Automatic annotation (TrEMBL):
Keyword Ubl conjugation belongs to the record: no
Domain Molybdopterin dinucleotide-binding: from-to ranges: 642-746
UniProt entry keywords in alphabetical sequence: 4Fe-4S, Iron, Iron-sulfur, Metal-binding, Molybdenum, Oxidoreductase
Occurrences of domain Molybdopterin oxidoreductase (ranges): 123-491
Entry GO MF terms: 4 iron, 4 sulfur cluster binding; formate dehydrogenase (NAD+) activity; molybdenum ion binding; molybdopterin cofactor binding
Family (UniProt): Belongs to the prokaryotic molybdopterin-containing oxidoreductase family.
Any one GO CC term of the record: membrane
The protein's name: Molybdopterin-dependent oxidoreductase alpha subunit
Lineage top rank: taxon: Bacteria
Cofactors, names only: Mo-bis(molybdopterin guanine dinucleotide); [4Fe-4S] cluster
Record flagged with keyword Lyase: no
Length: 755
């Protein structure tokens, strides 16, 4: 083991914060102002305007921010949002870091800086190695880097001692080659960011309706008459969704927000591309906001289902023809009292009945959700109860109604379709093996939580990441740091500097890659890649900017380089022409027949979606009603239930700025939001500092110095920002069945710091 001094796993503690007013609408002129600010700071006008004119256009590149779909018809000239602009500015920045930067700064010194500072340094420009015992990265040639990885992998006792993580920005082509390499190498250790994200959705949907994705199209959302948005903050995380919600509401739809917080983007929207929007004259969106207690959604959904039944609005014909489990579902609901439900979810019976009425009257009901449902111990149950409501109202396979699981990373859904999953089904592996003439491993691999444990236990020695920021995105930051430090080799394929480059194994590599915005030139000419959005639309993405450095490689080229060095096979044909990768995808992945031809049609194509045809690929061939208990939380006087959420100025662990504009929190991120009465009762003053302590199975974890802020949040609930609070989330605290870390339900105590 090296004698290298440890680099800090957590960002430095910065407690400055300025409090302003909470906003009651999203968008408006400030959205344009902030987008322009980010562009001019990072890119300059020439590069900036070029990206703005091509993002999400049929001939351009797919926005690297969220997975919100693009309209199939009638795209606007500016098909992006403020936060997409920030993501693009961060990637397409004109700032660069190379060997001089790393010679000047040790990894320990770099780790003393904030995440914002790390991201602001600029694009990585050449492959770098951190040798055993050394504190500085130094340049390494691509071939030497590939050879080093190959040597480490070949030296392992078993292929299962290596872990291959993927973040959701990798293209379909990169992801397909990557999983092929990993399986040819001999393991299914393919954890991904989805494990921490919508895994509960995938597991819950697959079990209930035999399909793990959304069942509605964008056009259907826009023409729905009733929309519920559960546990999602689209004003910040999917801003283009507000355009669709606005369209729906203008067409008469009624929108209900189910969220502990009154999020600005669900309250009202001022479209920055409309004259009135620019004048900050918003369109009201949600007609009803249900301020559910954290993790109160099963109780709330049971209330809605009860109300639907009491109104006689169940779709009996659909239920009889297409579902199983209805009687048990009914019996459980009958045995549950309104009082138990309202006490648990914190929403009054009157409000629940009002929402139930809207759900009962709906002819085209769409249920949307994101992390507020998935990142709980019962995340799968949350999702399945949402399915129960859709089934009760017969809203599957019906034009204009259905389930909309709003994905995070821009290609996280596509990566899974391409086989980035530690438990791919046998039928899929059979096809992969048949097409490539080998026997893929069958033993399930590690998911994210298991991967960390395996590194801690010394069962995994090489960690490879295709994108992302594993250290800061995963739970239990200090524990994950120890896990990574125990590896012999850690490798990060990245565009920008982050903390995972600083907390490493004995040897570490940074392999810098092209971003989405950049031209990808290979020996037969310019290449494009493909992605799949939240509504299963597969389409091309073609970058046009000059690459940040001539030394960058594309992600597929990096994967091929590692494969060649490890397996001793020639993969160059895949890289000279990505059509050859797509031909193999067409042969292996269902729904991708004639891939090369169909993806060249502007706008791409939509993958098959059996539930839309009322085809449910479950063991019974029917959709499943499921029964779930209302979770019980026993919080003592000094305890709160904490959720970790995103500010308006970050993309996951990438911090673009220190403001959370819509929530009125500026210049700082280390805050804990509490109900004003809880704050008073605990004897805290707004602005004072507290330590946050989580107690789990007798173990204590502490995050120091958070500023207390009074906020409109239900009693006994509190909110902090990700990733600063990840240190408090125990590795062993994860969802049943999906193993998604419980990032939105952590029991904490708040301890005043001495003044
Ligand atoms: N600009 C930007 N865009 C992004 C991202 C980003 O970081 N920045 N991240 C991307 C990724 S990977 C993802 S997964 C998505 C995340 O998108 P979101 O899921 O919108 O992200 P979060 O900030 O985690 O917000 C979750 C919401 O759920 C609410 N919530 C928390 N607990 C509960 C609960 O128990 N019940 C209910 N009903 N609500 C609850 C919170 O108040 C918050 O409004 O966004 C994607 N897009
Ligand atoms: N407490 C808490 N923890 C959470 C969450 C939460 O809500 N609360 N959310 C979870 C969720 S939903 C997710 S999806 C995960 C996210 O986990 P990750 O996907 O691992 O994290 P990101 O912060 O999105 O990764 C950012 C890094 O990706 C690299 N990158 C950016 N673009 C590219 C590219 O085009 N190619 C390559 N190779 N690299 C690129 C950059 O170096 C950047 O620093 O975090 C999870 N963690
Ligand atoms: Mo995510």
């Amino acid at each position: 083991m090296s004698s290298r001094e440890k680099a800090a796993a957590q960002p430095p503690i910065e407690t400055h914060v300025r409090l302003g007013e909470r906003k009651d609408f999203a968008g408006g002129k400030n959205a344009v102002l902030k987008a322009t600010e980010a562009m001019s700071r990072e890119q300059g006008w020439a590069r900036g305007v070029k990206t703005w004119l091509t993002v999400n256009q049929k001939e351009g590149f797919d926005c690297p921010s969220c997975a919100w779909p693009d309209p199939l018809e009638h795209r606007s000239r500016f098909e992006f949002c403020e936060n997409g602009a920030k993501a693009i500015a961060s990637e397409a920045t004109s700032k660069r870091i190379g060997r001089e930067f790393f010679a000047a700064h040790s990894v320990q010194a770099l780790a003393q800086n904030s995440d914002l500072w790390l991201d602001r340094q600029g694009r990585l420009t050449e492959p770098l190695v951190l040798r055993p015992g050394s504190n500085h990265y130094e340049p390494i040639a691509w071939d030497a880097a590939f050879a080093l990885i190959g040597e480490h992998l070949k030296a392992l006792v078993s292929p299962d001692e290596a872990i291959f993580y993927t973040s959701g920005r990798a293209s379909n082509e990169a992801a397909f080659l990557y999983q092929l390499f990993v399986r040819r190498f001999g393991t299914n250790n393919l954890p991904d960011c989805s494990n921490m994200c919508h895994e509960s959705s995938g597991v819950g949907l697959s079990e209930s309706i035999g399909f793990g994705k959304s069942t509605v199209t964008l056009a259907e959302l826009e023409s729905a008459d009733t929309i519920f948005v559960f546990g999602q903050n689209p004003g910040t995380n999917h801003p283009r969704m507000l355009t669709s919600l606005q369209k729906a509401v203008r067409g008469g739809a009624r929108l209900v927000s189910v969220n502990p917080l009154p999020e600005a983007g669900l309250t009202a929207f001022a479209h920055p591309q409309e004259p009135l929007g620019m004048l900050d004259q918003p369109t009201p969106l949600a007609c009803l906001h249900l301020p559910v207690r954290i993790n109160g959604d099963v109780a709330l959904l049971k209330g809605l289902c009860k109300a639907v039944l009491e109104a006689g609005a169940q779709d009996s014909a659909f239920i009889a023809a297409h579902t199983v489990g209805y009687d048990a579902f009914l019996a459980d609901l009958e045995a549950t009292s309104w009082q138990e439900l309202t006490e648990s979810c914190g929403v009054s019976e009157a409000e629940l009945r009002r929402a139930g009425e809207l759900a009962s009257q709906a002819k085209r009901l769409v249920l949307c959700w994101a992390m507020g449902l998935t990142q709980h111990k019962n995340g799968v149950a949350n999702v399945q109860y949402l399915v129960n409501l859709a089934l009760l109202r017969g809203m599957l396979g019906k034009d204009g109604g259905g389930l909309m699981c709003v994905r995070g990373h821009s290609n996280v859904q596509g990566d899974r379709t391409m086989g980035i999953y530690e438990k791919m089904p046998d039928s899929w592996l059979d096809r992969l093996g048949a097409v490539f003439g080998f026997t893929p491993p069958r033993k399930h691999g590690y998911d994210t939580v298991e991967a960390i444990q395996a590194m801690l236990d010394g069962k995994a020695r090489v960690f490879f990441a295709l994108g992302g920021n594993f250290l800061s995105a995963t739970p239990d930051t200090e524990v994950t740091a120890e896990a990574l430090r125990q590896c012999a080799l850690t490798v990060q394929v990245s565009t920008k500097l982050n903390r995972s480059h600083l907390v490493t194994g004995e040897t570490a590599l940074i392999l810098p890659c092209l971003g989405r915005t950049e031209r990808d030139l290979q020996s037969t000419g310019e290449q494009f890649v493909t992605v799949e959005d939240s509504v299963c639309n597969v389409h091309a993405s073609r970058g046009s900017l000059e690459p940040a450095s001539p030394h960058l490689k594309s992600e597929p080229a990096i994967v091929a380089g590692v494969a060649q060095a490890t397996l001793g096979e020639d993969w160059s044909g895949f890289i000279s022409d990505y059509d050859r990768i797509r031909d193999k995808i067409a042969a292996v992945v269902p729904g991708f027949e004639e891939f090369n031809a169909r993806v060249r049609v502007p706008g791409g194509f939509i993958l098959p979606n059996p539930p839309r045809e009322r085809e449910f690929r479950t063991p019974s061939g029917k959709a499943l009603f499921t029964v779930h208990a209302v979770p019980k939380w026993h919080l003592c006087e000094s305890e709160w239930l904490m959720m970790t959420i995103r500010t308006h100025d970050q993309f996951n662990t990438t911090v673009y700025g220190n403001d959370d504009r819509y929530r009125g929190i500026y210049e700082g991120r280390r805050v804990v939001l509490l109900h004003p009465d809880d704050l008073a009762q605990a004897g805290f003053q707004q602005g004072q500092l507290v330590d946050i302590v989580s107690v789990f199975e007798g173990e204590e974890r502490r995050a120091e110095s958070f500023v207390v802020v009074a906020y409109a949040i239900p009693r006994r609930c509190c909110a902090t920002y990700f990733p600063e609070a990840n240190v408090l989330i125990p590795l062993r605290s994860h969802a049943e069945k999906s193993k998604t870390p419980t990032s939105k339900s952590v029991i904490v105590q708040l301890v005043a710091r001495a003044a």
